[in-house]
Amino acid sequence: MAEPTKETRKLEKIRILGELERGLDDVDKVLATGKTDIELDFSACTFISVDGLEWLEEFLLRADSLKSSVKFVNVQSPVYKVFKVAHIDSLMRACGSPSQDAQGLVC
Fold first, then answer.
1. What is the pLDDT of residue 60?
2. Threshold 0.85, pTM exceeds
3. Would the CA dihedral through 43, 17, 60, 34 be positive or negative?
4. Total domain count, the chain
């Protein structure tokens, strides 16, 4: 069976609501289909725990292995600061920031 091409993939837009304290099963199920690219909207996200950060990092790794793209949009300043302090390159790339490896750490 052929892998879905970029043309046959659909873009799934998912809004993260409130506090992200753990993994989201609904989002994991969307990724598991392997036929979609995902846009996570953080406009309504108010807090991210360490478990939430770890889930996001693992989610991005799984997406990469499935050749799915994940993009973070509408990341509010407090959440972006958490991503930046965490120094997790994959999270920063999903936000659209350049790779830390390419420019060194940016503070």
1. 95
2. no
3. negative
4. 1
